[in-house]
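Tip: read the tokens left to right.
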């Protein structure tokens, strides 16, 4: 198969994949649930709106669905769930200004802190997390191809090829801290229940060192059974996993 046929084959494969995505039944179901959520929200049936937006997210996650879920949960009086949904909206799309504004307003009103981020985690918020992986892979293969193809195809080496290869390697190296930050951000989450005990050991009988407010951020260090070992700004200890929600959506 020559290069022109390979390009035609790759083009048809890309169009076929796009067509499959457009007719995906899960995506259609997610759209129907989103519409039902909007209709319930307009008639101020916020519990049904929250259920519909959650169903839409399970079929086709999107920043808009997370933001609307957060709005519905806030009007349901579920502050922690609203914060978690808005944080997840920013995870999917860091440009979701509505979710960011809602987070800032509610955290100031409830006197809750935002999660502590390292500099690599801050860098990872500049783009959607998936983009960093694609950027690293694309820039690395771009640099490798410029290093290998001239010898394979017997091209004469030139300065512009070496310059482009250096740019590709530079982009790859610069993307590594953000990719690491995106990975470590998956351990961040929020306490979901008010007055949640932070225990010394992962047992129901263990002494509680403090009680956490709903919406308080923490980082998961490790898991044991149904308990999570977390670190907040002021303390570390064990918490039941059902009372904690990770910001990174599944």
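Filled-in amino acids:
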């Amino acid at each position: 198969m020559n290069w022109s046929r390979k390009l035609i084959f790759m083009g048809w494969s890309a169009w076929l994949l796009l067509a499959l995505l457009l007719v995906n039944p899960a995506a259609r179901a997610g759209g129907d649930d989103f519409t039902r959520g909007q209709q319930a929200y307009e008639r101020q049936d916020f519990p049904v709106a929250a259920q519909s937006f959650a169903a839409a997210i399970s079929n086709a996650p999107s920043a808009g669905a997370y933001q609307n879920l957060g709005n519905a949960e806030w009007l349901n009086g579920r502050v922690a769930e609203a914060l978690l949904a808005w944080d997840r909206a920013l995870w999917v799309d860091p440009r979701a200004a509505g979710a960011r504004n809602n987070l800032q307003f509610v955290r100031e009103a409830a006197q809750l802190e935002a999660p502590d981020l390292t500099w690599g985690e801050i860098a990872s918020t500049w783009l959607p997390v998936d983009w960093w992986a694609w950027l690293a892979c694309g820039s690395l293969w771009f640099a490798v191809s410029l290093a290998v193809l001239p010898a394979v195809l017997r091209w004469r080496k030139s300065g512009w090829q070496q310059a482009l290869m250096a740019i590709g390697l530079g982009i790859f190296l610069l993307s590594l801290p953000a990719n690491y930050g995106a990975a470590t951000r998956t351990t961040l989450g929020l306490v979901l229940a008010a007055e949640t005990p932070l225990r010394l050991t992962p047992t129901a009988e263990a002494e509680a060192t403090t009680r956490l407010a709903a919406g308080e951020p923490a980082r998961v260090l490790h898991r044991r059974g149904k308990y999570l070992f977390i670190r907040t700004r002021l303390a570390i200890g064990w918490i039941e996993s059902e009372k904690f929600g990770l910001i990174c959506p599944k």
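Confidence is low (pLDDT under 50) at residues 1-29. The chain has three domains: 3-110, 122-185, 192-246.
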